[in-house]
Amino acid sequence: MLEITNLHAAVDGKEILKGIDLSIRPGEVHAIMGPNGSGKSTLAYILAGRDGYQVTAGEIRYQGRDLLELAPEERAAEGLFLAFQYPVEIPGVPNTTFLKEAVNAGRKHRGEDPLDAMQFLKLIRQKTQELGMSDEMLKRAVNVGFSGGEKKRNEILQMAILEPKLAVLDETDSGLDIDALKTVADGVNALRAPHRSMLVITHYQRLLNYIVPDKVHVLTQGRIACSGGPELAEKLEAKGYADFATAAA
Amino acid sequence: MLNGNAGATDFGAVFTERRARLPGAGLAWLSELRESGINQFRRQGLPTPRSEAWKYTNLQPLNKVAFAAPQVATRRPIRLDRVPSLLPSGDHARRLVLTEGRFSPELSHIGELPAGVGLEPLAQAIRRDPGGLQSYLGRIAHPVGQPMLALNTALMEDGVVLRVGRGAVLSEPVEVIHLGGLSDRAVAYHPRLLVLLEADSRAVLVEHFVGLGEQAYFANAATEIRVAEGARLDHVKVQDEGAAATHLASCHVWLDRQATFISFSLALGARLSRNEVHVRLEGEGARCRVNGAYLMRGRQHCDNTTLIEHLKPDTSCREVFKGVLDDQSRGVFQGRIMVHRGADKTDGHQLSKTLLLSDRAEIDTKPELEIYADDVKCSHGATAGDIDDEALFYLRARGIPEARARSLLIQAFLDEALDEVGIPALHEALLSRVAAWLGTA
């Protein structure tokens, strides 16, 4: 599904990622844990295709293709989804309009007919109920006036509707209280499937109690310092990142 | 005086040559009005950037073209079904078509009018009932210090007169369609509208300027409006002139006690355009909304200039203008609010926002507040920026192609202004014009 080899990347000439290797197979859920400034979000943005990051060495293959050659919208259309750490507010664009545009852009890419208003409404009603979201959140402008929890739920709603092949969740737990965290985790778990992979990026182990990964990687100072099973997350929770920082250096 | 460029039009000479044949030439008051107009114009000539009011909009290119008066004989005919309308065409759509400034009965449909409502071409009104015009024509739109209005006043040949009597309600919009670009030579014309709403009446007026050819021409329009006590006028203007056209239009409004004026102007066309709105809040509790949007590309230039004068207490005005400028286009927004002595408890707010889609596009904004009264709430704000990169990336990251994502963001930017148009059919019509401009229709 995703094959990252020796990835080096810089922002404004400053090297952030210093040789990442990561391989995710279909159906696997991987977690990347790391302290602030370790390069977690940089990796997420590079996967999604955001401007401002220079890949200086290495490659990323997604479903056998060179991911870095694709525009952000092509990546999304090919099934890559990034749940943003900070979902963007877009005044003036109603959430429903946005979701419908996104769904139909994907359908167009796959050569399917666009959903009409009724079909779309049916789809979205079902998904919002599952995530405990109100209709009112759909009418408002994208993320405008949403609480932190509502924004994160809106990300998971988009993921549920777009049904990606590879979902990258960037600090989806940040800013959530325990109830909201459970709702979001339930939403993510409901999407786990043999053909769908996930990359869960988080600072804290907490989220991984609810979304149990197949593999855990510790990212410090732009390198994967250590990989292991879910038990690695618990070890981190107990001991912190300090040991890994020295190990990586 | 006008300079001596070989191509320049000597409008003073045009007036001298035509005055005996202008409508109402035998009427002393109208002749005097025209004379005073041409004298005003001669004093200043075409405004230059040296004049503060025209600092950012240069009319001197007009001096390079010799504009003739439109001739029926040389005008391309247009079929009735080719007349572009903003409103859903139906047998009941009330529309008056002015082809190059002159009323075209064969393209127009006035229909039956409710009691108390009068609607007719200006030239006809001058023939039929000049006395009924004398107290208003040139009184609301007073040409002193306004050379282009003065020129219109001197040379106006035709236009529309709309009167709505006390308590009458004209619920269906009246659409005045100004057609330009129908001659193979450069022509200039000066349409004039007079709109009089008596106490407690209501009407909706649409002015739709459309260019049908590539030829350069010069439309110099003026509209004067009086809204009496408790009455309300909604005014929607769409400027979609030809690519080589120069469009100058000024709208002069007098509001009595508790009168309401709600206006919206959408500018898309013309090489050079200026939309002026002057509102005098002459009665206590009068209120107005003066809103607009402009979408420009290539080398288009679009100027919105407003003057809101609060003369009585408890008057209010809100202005929202949104501009989208691409390529090397240029926008100008000059918004002046004057709160005269005694106009206490005035509420005036003005907002100008511009989206620059290109590094070479330019906006010049000049807000001016002059306040001589007490307990006044007045504010203005202006912003200019490009498309929010984060929002653009967010949309693209959901699979929405870049061009489409940009259009969505531009549309969202404009909505704050467009949503001010409260009449659903007109709101829809404006949205579809914007979509056509964006290429998303």
Oligomer: heterodimer
Structural class of chain B: alpha/beta
Class by SSE composition of chain A: alpha/beta
Percent strand of chain B: 35-45%
**H/E order of the elements of chain B?**
HHEEEHHHEEEEEEEEEEEEEEEEEHHH
Poorly predicted segments of chain A: none
Distance separating the two termini of chain A: 30 Å
Mean pLDDT of chain A: 91
Which chains have the largest interface? Answer: A-B, 30 and 23 residues
Strand proportion of chain A, as a percent range, falls in: 25-35%
Radius of gyration of chain B: 21 Å
Note down, in words, how this protein is organized.
The complex is a heterodimer of chains A (249) and B (441). Chain A has nine helices and twelve strands. Chain A is of the alpha/beta class and 249 residues long. Chain A has one domain: 3-Layer(aba) Sandwich (Rossmann fold). In chain A, the strands form three sheets. A six-stranded mixed β-sheet of chain A has the order 6-9-10-3-11-12, sandwiched between helices. In chain A, strands 2-1-4-5 form a four-stranded antiparallel β-sheet, covered by helices on one side. Chain A has a two-stranded antiparallel ribbon with strand order 7-8. In chain A, helix 6 packs parallel to helix 7. The N terminus of chain B is likely disordered. In chain B, helix 2 packs antiparallel against helix 5, helix 6 packs across helix 7 and helix 7 packs antiparallel against helix 8. Chain B folds into two domains: 273 residues, no CATH class; 53 residues, no CATH class. Chain B is built from eight helices and 20 strands. In chain B, the strands form two sheets. In chain B, strands 2-1-5-8-10-12-14-16-18-20 form a ten-stranded mixed β-sheet, with helices on one face. Chain B is of the alpha/beta class and 441 residues long. The chains are: A alpha/beta (249), B alpha/beta (441). At the A-B interface, helix 2, strand 7, helix 3 and strand 8 of A face helix 6 and helix 7 of B.
